[in-house]
Design a protein that fits this description.
The chain is α/β, with parallel strands linked by helices. Helices cover 40% and strands 17% of the residues. Helix 2 links the parallel strand 2 and strand 3.
C-alpha cells in the first residue's frame, strides 16, 4: 500500500491539479492524506471536491501551525495506517513535484532503501522557474548540511519530495518520540534526514526537475528566518543521539 502525505497551506490554485496528476500517475493501491494547515482560501472545498474520485483523507489543523507540524500530523497518521513494508511519500502541495516519479521512488524502496529522495542535484535533475536567490540558498543549504551530516548517496537535503519505508518511520518515532520533528518551518525536511541518518537508514536519490513555473501564488518561505533556523538545526543535532539511545 502507498500513502501520499500532502501538507497544504492556501493551495487552492494548485492542489486540484496535483491530485489529478497523482490519480493519473499511480496505478497501485494508494491513499492520499492531505493536511490542511489552517488554510484561509478554498483549499478545503477543493480537496473535498476531489475526494469523490480519489482515495483521500483530510486532516485539518484549523489554524496554521507550520510545515513541521503539518508533516508530523501527516506522517503520524500514515505510520498508524501503514505496515512496515508499506511506502509513505511526502510531496509539496503546490504542484511543483512530478507524481510520475513515485513509481521510481517506490522501486528504490523495494530494492532495499529506507528513504528515496527526489533530488534536484542528482544527475539529470534541475530546477525551472526558481529565482537565482532561492537557487543559491537551496544549494548552499544542502552543501552545508552535507559538510556536517554526510550521508552516502545524498545531495539534496531540503527537498520535501521523498519516499520512506514504513519500518524506518516507525523506528524513528519510537526512537525520538516527540523530538523526531522539532523544527516548525522548512528546515524540518533536513531535520528528518539528519535523524534518520543516526538510525543508519539506507538512502538514495532519483533525479527531479523542480517545476516552480507550474506553481501559482507566491512562495511561503521566509529566506532570512530559514537561514537562521539551519544554524540552530546544525547546533542542536551535532553529535546528538536518539532518546532511546540516550537512556542506555
Amino acid at each position: 500500500m502507498l500513502f501520499i502525505v500532502l501538507p497544504a497551506y492556501n493551495e487552492e490554485l494548485n492542489i486540484g491539479s496535483l491530485l489529478d496528476r497523482i490519480q493519473q500517475a499511480v496505478a497501485s493501491p494508494y491513499q492520499v492524506l492531505v493536511v490542511n494547515d489552517g488554510s484561509t482560501d478554498g483549499t478545503v472545498p477543493m480537496v473535498n471536491s476531489c475526494s469523490e474520485r480519489i482515495p483521500l483523507e483530510l486532516l485539518d489543523h484549523g489554524v496554521n501551525k507550520g510545515l513541521g507540524q503539518a508533516i508530523t500530523t501527516g506522517l503520524c497518521r500514515a505510520v498508524d495506517l501503514a505496515s512496515e513494508d508499506d511506502v509513505i511519500v511526502t510531496m509539496d502541495a503546490d504542484n511543483t513535484h512530478d507524481p510520475a516519479l513515485i513509481g521510481k521512488m517506490v522501486e528504490g524502496i523495494r530494492r532495499g532503501l529506507d528513504v528515496v529522495i527526489a533530488s534536484r542535484y542528482a544527475p539529470g535533475g534541475g530546477e525551472t522557474g526558481l529565482s537565482w536567490m532561492r537557487h543559491v540558498f537551496s544549494r548552499g543549504a544542502s552543501l552545508l548540511l552535507r559538510l556536517f551530516f554526510p550521508i552516502p548517496g545524498v545531495r539534496d537535503y531540503t527537498c520535501g519530495y521523498r519516499a520512506y519505508r514504513g519500518a524506518i518511520l516507525k523506528q524513528a518515532f519510537a526512537a525520538y518520540g516527540g523530538r523526531f520533528i522539532e523544527e516548525s518551518g522548512f528546515t524540518c525536511m533536513a531535520e528528518i534526514l539528519i535523524k534518520l541518518r543516526s538510525l543508519s537508514a539506507r538512502m538514495g536519490e532519483v533525479p527531479l526537475v523542480l517545476r516552480y513555473d507550474l506553481k501559482s501564488g507566491a512562495t511561503k518561505m521566509k529566506v532570512m528566518r530559514t537561514i537562521g533556523r539551519y544554524g540552530v538545526l546544525i547546533a542542536r543535532n551535532w553529535r546528538r543521539r536518539p532518546l532511546s539511545q540516550s537512556l542506555l
